[in-house]
Write a sequence for this structure.
């Protein structure tokens, strides 16, 4: 799992990076502008943002990202204890919130909760009869074992993480391809067509004129 960490406290940042790197790939920055740039160039599975950084704040950053259909799960960390910041964090699209000082094990448990909720563990039961390994790209169905391509795997995982809402073709293009290699919408439609052969049309719904939804 790949995490983008925005934290300007150098001591805390070093502690968090050392702790998280035991299990995850971590990209760290002290700057909101750099975090925005990194999020545009790379795909992350989780954001951990400090609210108050020298060149801005994590809440504004997340609002910006959400406006571009970036639904990456996000945990805010902050020294603020005022409930107005808690409210602003969740209104911006945050999924969790942790106050400083905190125990590293508490952060680990919050990450585990995010992973369970968004299907970020390697082995995910995406339906009663469908088991998906996001690391090996293997999809197990009642009928067969399917070895998905990396893009098929990424597409299925993205739809599952954003299940029960409609995901547009444009959103998938933005989140599954790097900017300089982005293809046409036909590439997404081809991926969906292949995936529906494996998982069934009842699990990937085509919402005419809007996009696709995983059920």
């Amino acid at each position: 799992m790949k995490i983008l960490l925005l934290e300007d406290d150098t001591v805390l940042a070093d502690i968090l990076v050392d702790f998280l790197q035991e299990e995850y790939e971590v990209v760290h920055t002290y700057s909101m502008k750099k975090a925005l740039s990194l999020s545009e160039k790379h795909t992350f599975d989780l954001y951990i943002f400090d609210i108050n950084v020298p060149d801005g704040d994590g809440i504004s950053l997340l609002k910006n990202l959400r406006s571009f259909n970036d639904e990456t799960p996000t945990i805010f960390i902050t020294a603020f204890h005022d409930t107005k910041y808690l409210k602003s964090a969740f209104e911006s699209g945050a999924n969790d919130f942790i106050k400083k000082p905190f125990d590293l094990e508490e952060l680990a448990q919050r990450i585990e909760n995010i992973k369970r909720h968004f299907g970020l563990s390697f082995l995910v039961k995406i339906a009663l009869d469908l088991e998906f390994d996001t690391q090996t790209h293997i999809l197990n169905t009642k009928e067969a074992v399917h070895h998905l391509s990396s893009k098929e795997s990424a597409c299925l995982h993205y739809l599952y993480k954003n299940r029960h809402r409609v995901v547009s073709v444009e959103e998938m293009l933005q989140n599954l391809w790097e900017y300089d290699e982005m293809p046409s919408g036909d590439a997404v439609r081809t991926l969906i067509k292949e995936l529906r052969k494996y998982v069934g049309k009842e699990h990937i719904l085509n919402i005419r004129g809007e996009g696709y939804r995983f059920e």
Observations:
- The first helix runs from residue 10 to 20.
- Residues 152 and 191 are 6 Å apart (CA to CA).
- The mean pLDDT is 89.
- The first strand starts at residue 2 and ends at 6.
